[in-house]
Amino acid sequence: MPAVAQTSDRPAIDRRSFLFTTTAVVGAVGAIAAGWPLVDQMNTDARVRAAADIIDFDASALGPAEQRRLRWRNFPVFVVRRTPAMLAAMQEPVFVAALRDPASRMRQQPLYARIWHRSIDPVFAVLVGICTKCGCVPNYSAETSVLNMAGGYICPCCASHYDPAGRVYSGIAQYNLPVPPYTIDGRSQILLGKNPPGELFAFESIEAI
Fold it and tell me: What b-and-e string marks burial along 106-132, b requiring 16 or more CB atoms within 10 Å of the CB?
């Protein structure tokens, strides 16, 4: 009985097409391998990214009531040398009664800044400058505003008022301005983005920004 010829539905692969495809694949892999060092070089090293999270600022150059605006993690951060008049006005009983969160119970700051002046050193304020209601950048003023507050911030969008410690006392905002993690080295060297020794605070844990 004659043998039955075996058939296949798949077309035969042309030798030239096979060689062309193989060469193209090998070439593409080689190009990727050659280009990877360049791509990898463009990626920021993890240690560099970590270092960029810490901003070193010498606040000793600030004059009374002067503000300096820094940039940290793409957030504007206000550093102000508060005057004795500012600190005194911030503690006036009539003014304190108007504060939305006078005891800083809302999680808008580290535990080491949960105090009436919301800072490590009463002289220096360190605040994230974004209105907690509408997201605009508040305007700083060293002049007396409503309720006889000497200095502070006014949001140009929703007209919320914050005192020199970032505590909201007028307008529609309900949360104080956030305090970022920071420490002070010596008397005035501010390390923004670094907690004091033994302290743990993640900026992502704040309630509103």
Answer: bebbbebbeebbbbbebbbbbbbbbbb
